Structure formats: structure tokens, C-alpha cells
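User: I'm putting together a teaching handout on how multi-component assemblies are represented. Below are the sequence lines for each component of a complex, exactly as they appear in our records. Could you produce the 3D structure of the whole assembly as C-alpha cells, so the students can see both representations side by side? Please keep the chain order the same as the input.
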Amino acid sequence: MNKLFVIKIGGNVLDDEAVLTMFLKDFVAIQAPKILIHGGGGIAAKIGDRLGIESKYVKGRRITDAATLDVVTMVYGGLLNKQLVARLQELGCNAMGFTGADGNLIKATKRPVGETDFGFVGDVTTESVNSTLLVFLLKQGIIPIFAPLTHSNGTLLNTNADTIASVLAASLSMHFDVRLIYCFEKKGVLKDVKDENSVITLLDKKLYEKFLTEGSFHDGILPKLENAFTAIQSGVKEILIGDAKDLSKNLGPETAGTLIKN
Amino acid sequence: MNKLFVIKIGGNVLDDEAVLTMFLKDFVAIQAPKILIHGGGGIAAKIGDRLGIESKYVKGRRITDAATLDVVTMVYGGLLNKQLVARLQELGCNAMGFTGADGNLIKATKRPVGETDFGFVGDVTTESVNSTLLVFLLKQGIIPIFAPLTHSNGTLLNTNADTIASVLAASLSMHFDVRLIYCFEKKGVLKDVKDENSVITLLDKKLYEKFLTEGSFHDGILPKLENAFTAIQSGVKEILIGDAKDLSKNLGPETAGTLIKN
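Assistant: Of course. Below is the structure of the complete assembly, with chains in the same order as your input.
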């Protein structure tokens, strides 16, 4: 099978012009089919503030009300996504920007109201992805750039970018040898969160469960690891968690971050 | 050749929920390949106001400075475009939203600074359109929905939606029998702008030039007519100017608006 890179960048990359410029250059240089998923970054909160829309939280978790949905649709689906596409085009990469609504590429389920009503939030699984159309676009040399938005019943929904990356990687693993790369601000998954040099270079299910039991992981990395192992269970061959600045070092058999395998 | 409908809606349709709902239903019902181009509407100005960004004009013509470009990228490329796509998907239409940057579908030239610097405004011709990719997407049953944005040199550019509709129609007329439909708030091109029943049902180049010389046309319709006759010269078979509410009446040989032919 052909190789496919599914790469996720978060707000820390989008908010740092020097890192973003370097990342885009490295992304364009990848000589294989590839998909980019981007998160939000500080700009959505800034625009929300300027529009007088307050971020609402319940038990520390953000709620997407109708006004917030409009802000993220504008900022993620419009500003950030289209700016990335225009810049990648300039670098010779045939980027095409998408939300999950476009071509019905990712259809979500609006999160059911339980104890908390999260509002316009979409939950997704591997089955949410229109992989037939994605494979078809990739074969045409199109490079899909995803904003963290999905859809259901005629409305857009806010969806976690890490999770979108995970389900895209999983659904495409039937057609490609997928390496899913989570780019963030650290060198990888750290044994000691205070020590940047304590990168766990290789992590398998057994070691993951051992570290989990021991409570070794920093809280912030847990959702990423959960998404990673869900993807592995769904057939993704390799997952790499590393620094956006190290993208070029994380494309081959030798890697600089944390490589996760079954 | 197969028939293709290229349909443009302006702000008046987007700003009127009842008209928009009816329009989308009629659009979805069209049993032929089709492309939608949407303009802006009042929401862009409202969001700009709330963000404290003033609209700048020179000699009555709007200037797109960097802050305004961000607003239109958010509102046209994000909010309006993605909401239309999500609603069309719900109606069973496989819509996919684009700016000209996506897939390099419409590459523009930034308007040269003459007496006036219009800022981030893109000028386009028939040659600006990546018709190969568009034909390919249409053949896959994808319905392209265009925001009035193009790109050049890594940046997005604000481009008139009527003009985008015209160049898309022209570039695709090599592959399809194109009917370009401009939907607006009047029944068609009027002989007497105060009389809604004075629709000119058929307009050809000769009659157009006669009316031009006589100064019969209302100022507001002139740019639309210019775009229309440019498209006709570039091979578009038929252009229809009519009311968005009359879309369903403007798809066959009998029409309710102004039909323009060579």
C-alpha cells in the first residue's frame, strides 16, 4: 500500500509565525499523499472577545452555543483554513480546504445532552468519514486541509481536531499505510513533563497501560494518547507525537518524537 | 453537450431567510450539473462594524484593506459558504464550498494600483479558472459553492461575485451548454426601473447597444449586463437575469426574467 501522512497542527503552531512558516515548508516537501488538520489557536478567542461573545464553560469544558459556533465557523472554516490554503498554493502544494460538511466528508452526531449540554459539538467515529471521496481527491493530487468542523442535520458542529485527525487516519488505513502525526509544542510524550529530554521514543499498548497504571502521564497528553490508541486499534499503522519544528525528522524510519505502534 | 447551470445569488437572497429557503429548495431540484456563486450580504458589514473595522471608500468604491480582507474571508469564505454547504447537504445536494484558492480553482491578478489603490482585490478572466479540476469535480456529482474570493501570491483577494459567475460560466462553456443565471431582487432587466412589469424578456447584443445609446438602463444593472455580454462573447450560450424567487421558472425554454442570447 502507498504511504499517507495525516498531520495535525494545533493553535501553538498557528499562533507562531516563524514555526508556521517552517512547518508549511516541511509539509510541502513531503513526497507522498498527505492531509493536514488544523486546530484553532488564539485568534478565535480574540475575535470572539472583539465581537462581545463570551466563552462559556461548564465544569472546565467549553460549551459551543450558537454565537460561538458562528465564531468558529468564521475563524476555523474561513480565516485560518483559507489563509493556510492560499499560502500552501503559493508554495506549490495543491491544497483544498474543507470542513466536514463539504462533500459530506465528515458527518457527525450532535453530542447528546446528558448532564451537560455541550451545544453544537459533533462526535465522530471512523464510520463518519467519506473515505471514498477522500481517496478519490488524494488520487487527483489534491491535498485536503481540514478545519475542525463537522456537520449534521443542516448545521455545522465544532469537533476536536485531534479526534478528526484520528478518525481520518483510521478510515484511510484501509487504502493507505497511514502515519498519523500529532504536532505540538513538546518534543514528544515525556516521562517527566518538566524534562524536555525525557521523550519516550517508542510506546506500545503494553507500555502505555503500564504508564497509565503508574499515573506517569501528564494530564494534558492523555486525550492525545487516547485518540492515538483508538486510531491504532482501527488499523492506523504508526502514530507519531512530536514537535511541529521536528516534522522533517519524523517522516522516515528514524524519528525524533514518540512513535506509537501496536 | 450536457447542460450546466451557473447560478449567482446576491446579498438580498442571503439576507432574506424565506427567499433563501425557497431558493435552496429550487436549486437542489435542478436535475443537471450546477454551480452556485454567492455574494456577501449585510452580515459582512455587521460583523465588520462589531469588530470596529470601518468600511473605506474612495470615489464611492469600496477599498479592501487587510482588516476588511480578514472580515470577508471569515464571513464569505467561512460563515456564509459553510452554512450554505451544510444546508444543501441536508437537502441531499452534495455541495462542496470553495474560494478560488482551494485547488487553485480561480487564480486572480491583484488589481494594479492606479489612481486608486483598491487593496486586496482580485481581477479575473476566463483564463483564471482551473476548468479541468472543476469539470472533474462536477463529473463526480459534486456541486461547487463559490464564495467571492480568489487568490494570488499566497494571499486571498476579494472579487466581485457577478464577475466570478461570468468567468466560471465562460471557462466551462467549452465543456457544457452553459446557462448563467443572475438571481437578484427584480423580475429581470426593466425598461422602466419603476415598473416591475416592464421586464425585457429577450435581449441580444443589438438591442443592448441600442438601449445603451438611448441611456435606457438603470445604473445598477449596467455592471451585470457588462458581465453578461462578456460571458456571451466568451461562449456562454444563454444568460438569464431574474428574480431569485423565479428560479424554477428560469430553467427551461420558457423563462420569466430577461434572457440574453448572442
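A couple of points students might notice: The CA atoms of residues 16 and 41 of chain B lie 10 Å apart. The longest helix of chain B spans residues 66-90.
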